[in-house]
Amino acid sequence: MGGQVSTSSSFSNLRCRNANEDWMSTLCPRLWDVPLHHLSIPGSHDTMTYCLNKKSPISHEESRLLQLLNKAFPCITRPIVLKWSITQALDVTEQLDAGVRYLDLRNFIFGLYSHVGLSSLSGVPTSRPSSLLGAPRVPGSPLSPAPLNSGALQELPTLRQLWSRGQQVIVSYEDESSLGRHCELWPGIPYWWGNTVKTEALLRYLETMKSCGRPGGLFVAGTNLTENLQYVLAHPSESLEKMTLPNLPRLSAWVREQRPGPGSRCTNVIAGDFIGADSFVGDVIALNQKLLWC
């Protein structure tokens, strides 16, 4: 954890309490027969940022200005980029123990390269964004092959179906050229990204996306705030964590208002930053109880 932005004491509480570690298997058995895209599933945005530090190299794909600043003033540039890049304090195991079942994985994060490499299928580059959606119940993580017509409106597998086949992990990938070569890869899962520093603007965006109708399969509503250059320059002593944590209560209130299911305004995966800082994971999981009221 060295070199990372300091985290609030609320994260330490999570490491002692893993009440949501096995939440899928403890759901009401009726919910084991609900398609995955109709369940409420907690996820983490930019899962791997916990491992970024001051030695993380800035990508050559970043702007020329940023690369020049990094070359001329690395002791100033990298700490600034770092503190606005870290979105998670818990490592992958801790996030899974907390109940997260959607992992947003990428080696290249906000201009920095992660030091933790991702295992890849043969011939699949790891630089493209990918995600894992897990339905763990027993040791091991066999992959679920993608459905033949995953882009159409159709019923996706249920937890019971996946478990009966010994399948526990779905891998989605955004590079379409790789999908045809690897039956294990699912198409990229749509991610609703508000790209704003303001909580109310983010929630208006999410409500607008809901009003347009849900995608046919798995999809993610991102409750993560995003800084811009103007905000960073106006708040030189702050960080993404300092910007986000005070807004978590309002974001969590929105989460608790959501409803999973097949309806056009229903949500599916909900992803957030700084897992463990509040009740986010438990709030997302608790939404599944609404499916039992129907």
From TrEMBL:
The record's annotation in InterPro entries points to:
PI-PLC_domain, PLC-like_Pdiesterase_TIM-brl, PLCXD1/2/3
Tell me where on the tree of life, at the top rank, the source sits: Eukaryota
Could you state a single Gene Ontology molecular function term?
phosphoric diester hydrolase activity
Tell me what this protein is called: PI-PLC X domain-containing protein 1
Record GO biological process: lipid metabolic process
